[in-house]
């Protein structure tokens, strides 16, 4: 498993190359991530590209009214994340567990550094 800093370095290297991946650079994977948030897209559904079994669609974070932990009205940055899974490859319940783990890590980012 790669560390968060190793993944970050690889992403910066890929972004420096015109933000394009050649097919041989993403083949053999099981999950893809599609980020349209950087273009201001708030929410979207991504299409699974075989041979991947799932794709995570990440939208832009937007400041919105929210109910805080104390029940009070507050402002929070809300981000849409949608997971599409091919049920022939990945059971939906397992996909839901993955989405829950992603949510937990985004809510508690320091856990990813441990």
Assembly level? single chain
What is the CATH superfamily? Chloramphenicol acetyltransferase-like domain
CATH T-level topology: Chloramphenicol Acetyltransferase
Please trace the helix and strand order, writing H or E for each element: HHEEEH
Shape: globular
Number of domains: 1
- Largest sheet report: 3 strands, mixed
**Beta-strand level of the residues, as a percent range?**
25-35%
CATH class: Alpha Beta
Cα-atom radius of gyration: 16 Å
The beta-strand count equals: 3
Helical coverage, percent range: 25-40%
Overall average residue pLDDT: 87
What is the CATH-assigned architecture?
2-Layer Sandwich
Structural class determined from secondary elements: alpha+beta
Strand order of the largest sheet: 1-2-3
Keywords:
114 residues; Chloramphenicol Acetyltransferase; three-stranded mixed β-sheet; 3 strands
Structure description:
The chain is of the alpha+beta class. It has a single domain, classed as Chloramphenicol Acetyltransferase. 28% of the residues lie in helices and 28% in strands. A hairpin with a 5-residue loop joins β2 and β3 (73-85). The longest helix has 16 residues, at 92-107. The protein is globular, with a radius of gyration of 16 Å. The two termini are 13 Å apart. The model has no long low-confidence stretch (mean pLDDT 87).
Helices and strands, with pairings:
Elements: H1 4-15, H2 23-26, E1 31-35, E2 54-67, E3 73-85, H3 92-107
Parallel strand pairs: 1-2
Antiparallel strand pairs: 2-3
Summarize the structure.
The chain has 114 residues and is an alpha+beta fold. It has helices at residues 4-15, 23-26, 92-107, and strands spanning 31-35, 54-67, 73-85. The mean pLDDT is 87.
């Amino acid at each position: 498993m790669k560390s968060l800093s190793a993944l970050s370095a690889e992403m910066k290297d890929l972004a420096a190359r015109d933000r394009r991946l050649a097919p041989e650079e993403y083949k053999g994977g099981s999950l893809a991530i599609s980020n349209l948030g950087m273009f201001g897209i708030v929410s979207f559904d991504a299409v699974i590209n075989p041979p991947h079994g799932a794709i995570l669609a990440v939208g832009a974070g937007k400041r919105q009214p929210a109910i805080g932990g104390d029940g009070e009205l507050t402002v929070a940055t809300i981000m849409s994340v949608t997971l599409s899974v091919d049920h022939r490859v990945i059971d939906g319940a397992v996909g839901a567990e993955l989405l829950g783990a992603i949510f937990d890590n985004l809510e508690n980012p320091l856990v990813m550094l441990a």
